[in-house]
Amino acid sequence: MPVTTKRAKTAIAEPNIAFIKYWGNRNHTLRIPSNGSLSMNLEGLETRTSVTFDPALPADRLTLNGQPVADSALVRVSAMLERVRGQAGTTHFASVSSTNNFPMGAGIASSASAMAALALAASAAAGLELPEKDLSILARTGSGSASRSVPGGFVEWQAGSSHEDSFAFSIAPPEHWDLVDLVAVVHAEHKATGSTAGHVLAESSPLQSARVADAHRRIEICRRAILERDFPTFAGIVELDNNMMHAVMMTSTPPLVYWKPATLAVMESVGRWRDEGAEVCYTIDAGPNVHVICTSKHRQELAGLLRAMPGVRQVLEATPGGPTRLVPDP
Ligand code: DP6
User: Fold this and answer.
1) Which pTM was predicted?
2) Nearest residue CA, atom 6 of ligand 1?
3) Ligand 1 center–CA 168 separation, angstroms
4) Rg of the chain's alpha carbons, rounded to an integer?
5) d(Cα 289, Cα 262) in Å, to the nearest integer?
6) 3-state SS, residue 175
7) d(CA 210, CA 224)
8) CA of 287 to the centre of ligand 1 (A)
9) How many CB atoms lie within 10 A of CB 105?
10) Which of 230, 249, 243 is nearest to 270 (CA)?
């Protein structure tokens, strides 16, 4: 049903942390990834986005955390709105208002929750009722990792080979495994090279083809470890996958080195805590902050140890989260 009247729709989406990473695209425009990936949504961190299509607007408008925005973020939002307009058969511009409850550019993929919330709020405001698969596909076009924030819990994004078959689905609900993500924030500034540019650079690393060729094997091992709640296997494959992605980043032209000294200090401590018997491992996205993944019985102790480390400015805590959902308008 095409949009005929003004109505606001509000959606909430959570970011996600990838255990098997997305790095590099087969098609950059559509964000068809070079390899599949696996992740967990992060309950406790969220983006809340409201969208209204309004016949009186001369252009799309965006407000981020209460501030009007007219830069590349608006261009990216408008590209998503344009897709929704095409699907819904409307030409009306939209007003978009979005807030995050976590710091942007802190190595927590804010684009994932942002684009997942926008895809749902915009499509609903335009009168579309998209099934989860189509919503994941739509979110993917805005940010690859956003496809994984659409379904709940533990999620797999099958790479696919076309626009229609590259989407994410849940492999287990949030309550399946009591994992905790302790995000050790060591540096909260915006990163110099964002993931969108990084995906293009991946091809310039001679290691990327080997990383992609082996991805199916890593996904199989990680999926099984999640389904069987096998922490030692999970830890091994998550850290291997992380280290392979960062090896690709570091051997791209130009090289991308996201780590800071405090990043490495946290990685070393995690290895030591694991040797001492804790169920804990690390993974790092396109930034310096370390996602320290543990089971809930170690949460309190490890969060305390992390907070006491020099160089760790803040520790955010998240548990497995739910799907992107509509909420009543404020
Ligand atoms: C390192 O999804 O942020 O976090 O599609 O350009 O928005 P765009 O990239 P994005 O890339 C995420 C990269 C990563 C790994 C991951 O989340 O899988």
Assistant:
1) 0.96
2) 196
3) 14
4) 19
5) 9
6) helix
7) 22
8) 11
9) 13
10) 243
> Angle, nearest 10°, between helix axes 231-250 and 215-227?
150
Q: How many CB atoms lie within 10 A of CB 317?
A: 16
Residues paired with 172 in a beta bridge: 154
Beta-ladder partners of 53 = 94
- The C-alpha atoms of residue 205 and residue 201 are separated, in whole angstroms, by 7
**C-alpha–C-alpha distance, residues 209 and 99, integer Å:** 38
Q: What is the pLDDT of residues 65-113, one digit of tens each?
A: 999 998 888 999 999 999 999 999 999 999 999 999 987 655 566 799 9
Q: Which tokens is 79 given? A: 């590209």
199: CA distance to ligand 1 center in Å? 8
Residue closest via CA to ligand 1's atom 11 equals 195
Both tokens of 183, joined, read 């995000």
pLDDT tens sequence across 175-227: 999 999 999 999 876 667 889 999 999 999 999 999 999 999 999 999 999 99
Does residue 22 line the site of ligand 1, with CB under 6 A?
Answer: yes
- As given in the structure block, the two tokens for residue 271 are 């290895």
